[in-house]
Design brief:
It is a single chain. The protein is about 50% helix and about 15% strand. With about 220 residues, it is of the alpha/beta class. α2 crosses α3 and α4 packs parallel to α5. The mean pLDDT is about 95. The protein binds adenosine monophosphate. The site of adenosine monophosphate has 17 residues, from α2 and α3.
């Protein structure tokens, strides 16, 4: 199973990518998590990416394409993968397609998480993120078991700098101009599957189990 998950910020891509990866026992690669790891470790990429991410803009295609190609070249990705937040531009989608062609592989589907603005704003304003393992929580909807601590690794949860209201609005605008064209791109290739990002996690998981059933049977 080779899947791309795309949609506006706050659509729930990260949460569902993680659950699907565990269920299908295939790796999920979250572009934003990888970039935040670079920032934490103060690598050259991290130093350049920090200001860009905090402004709510996209890091250059060349940088992210190289990072993601490295991830996909790992042996664990041979049996399948879930990409969360990559590709995010047409240039990235083309680079991914070329990369997979080189591996004699193709995507099975690009899942578009269609999500309404009030849901996005509510999710992002209450979102808490584990800076260590990347898991997302929500103050009200998905609270951690112990307040302020990650259920998985115990690290202190934080509000992401780019989840501040002004930056969120900019990220949504960037999504509309840079990422929304992927709808047409994947539709033309017969790969597009639309699901509702407005659904709560269990309901959308049920929906995903239905739409992805044909792949589980064939692989
Ligand atoms: P995310 O965790 O997916 O919300 O990503 C957080 C931020 O990381 C984005 O707002 C961008 O600044 C950067 N980023 C993540 N994925 C990409 C990508 N595919 N291309 C460029 N920038 C990205």
């Amino acid at each position: 199973m080779r899947l791309v998950l795309f949609g506006p910020p706050g659509a729930g891509k990260g949460t569902h990518a993680r659950i699907l990866g565990e269920k299908w026992k295939i790796p999920h690669f979250a572009a934003g998590d990888i970039l935040r790891r670079h920032i934490r470790e103060a690598t050259e990429i991290g130093k350049k990416a920090r200001a860009i991410i905090e402004r709510g803009e996209l890091v250059p295609d060349t940088v992210i394409n190289e990072i993601m190609a490295d991830q996909l070249a790992q042996t664990e990705a041979r049996k399948g993968f879930i990409l969360d937040g990559y590709p995010r531009t047409l240039g990235q989608a083309e680079a991914l397609e070329k990369f997979l062609e080189g591996q004699r592989e193709t995507l099975d589907s690009a899942l578009y998480f269609k999500t309404s603005s009030p849901v996005i704003l509510n999710r992002l304003s209450g979102r808490l993120n584990c800076p260590k393992c990347g898991v997302n929580y929500h103050r009200k909807n998905i609270p951690p078991k112990v307040e302020g601590k990650c259920d998985r690794c115990g690290a202190e949860l934080v509000q992401r700098a780019d989840d501040q209201p002004e930056t969120v609005l900019h990220r949504i605008a960037v999504y509309e101009t840079e990422t929304a064209p992927l709808l047409n791109y994947y539709n033309k290739r017969g790969l597009l599957t639309e699901v509702s990002g407005d659904l709560e996690v269990p309901e959308l998981q049920q929906e995903l189990a239905k739409v992805l059933a044909r792949y589980s049977k064939s692989r």
